[in-house]
């Protein structure tokens, strides 16, 4: 039988539904791949071997009973360790939750299980999803399967690395400022940040509640769409969840086309700091869009220049409030509780021992920005900039159907290069952050390799809120054209581990 780990999710689901392969065989093949390569990659923090095989057996039993299987039944998935999983450890990449076993499933997990998706385990991430390289994980970095000395992006580097190393055909990420799209770009995979409120945040450990959004990661646009449909939709347990039908993303992915569409190129997403090979691939992609029948319009979003500054006030402010619950008293780590200390001292000792440097930096920044006397100057101003950014998008979407840009200014950088330079690290999300601030939908998909280093480059597509289907329509057309022209970078030049 062909190597089951090299197939797409839709291909695997087809084989399982037709009986050509069992879900148990598919799961075992991926577990064997994890055994073979994850020591080098370190995509997983926890592999749930028993749980995965039990889920797979249930799918095979269902088929044997003649029950109809869903479009992803039996397909393995790697889950970012930010979602609570009943009975399975959830760390958020932090020591502060080490050893905690959640008593409930996140809504997204409940939906994956209902769709008969097989959850292989939990993936590595920057602590509390704060970072762009997965180096801020308390459990050590993840390597980029294209070059293990380089970062796989962050914060969801484990999820994207699991795809690029063929340990899983599907993964879940979360995107507060780019953490689905930036790892997708630097690993040659597909990642989608759905419209804010499109996928439930219930059971997703909060970083910055007004920005956080879970979403699909895959190796193809269609696979991402199938996963998107499985996890999206209204959830009464999340008050910010949108109560409206899920945009028809699978239908769009099956009918890729850009003919007659207006595609905007944002002038502000270029210039200093952008790697030459990234711009070259991006410009070729724009040319390709023209060849495919799109009308390309150059436009300006003047407030985007301030997006990074606004984000790094809003996200830390919200995190300083959200992370107050990790007090060493209720759950997770507790340090210094020897009977002689006050609860306050135990909380302080626990937080000092449990949080890493980047998380502490953000809590301090956020607490400062929210303090009386500074609130208007910092948090208040950042919120005003946020409004201006939303207006820029609004104006842009009056002229075009989607926007395109590079996903990241550079390809994967070496592990260690930016870890002591937070500003350099923050720049990795220059192009992704505006969409989080405005709450609209965005995708990254591979657009070839940069000539100077042979590493993957990502093309970002941005659509208005609740027009997530446009991402898939354009993405599928572009993906097919790329494969025609240059082959699939990941499937044909699979990184050798
Ligand atoms: N890199 C950004 C940050 O560090 C975004 C992270 C994310 O999207 N979770 O905050």
Mean pLDDT: 96
Strand order of the largest sheet: 1-3-2-4-6-5-10-11-9-7-8
CATH fold node name: Amidase signature (AS) enzymes
Domain count, please report it.
1
* Secondary structure tally: strands: 11
Architecture, according to CATH? Alpha-Beta Complex
Rg, Cα atoms, Å: 21 Å
> Which hetero compounds are present in the coordinates?
glutamine
The helix count comes to: 17
User: What structural class should be given to the helix and strand makeup?
Assistant: alpha/beta
Catalogue the unreliable spans.
none
**Helix percentage range:** 40-55%
Fourth CATH level, the homologous superfamily: Amidase signature (AS) domain
What gross morphology would you assign? globular
Question: How would you characterize the largest beta sheet?
Answer: 11 strands, mixed
- The rounded distance between the terminal residues' Cα atoms is 22 Å
Give the SSE string.
Answer: HHEHEHEHEHEEHHEHEHHHHEHHEEHH
Tell me the β content: 5-15%
User: So what's the CATH class?
Assistant: Alpha Beta
Family: Belongs to the amidase family. GatA subfamily.
GO biological process, one term: translation
Protein name: Glutamyl-tRNA(Gln) amidotransferase subunit A
GO molecular function: ATP binding; glutaminyl-tRNA synthase (glutamine-hydrolyzing) activity; transferase activity
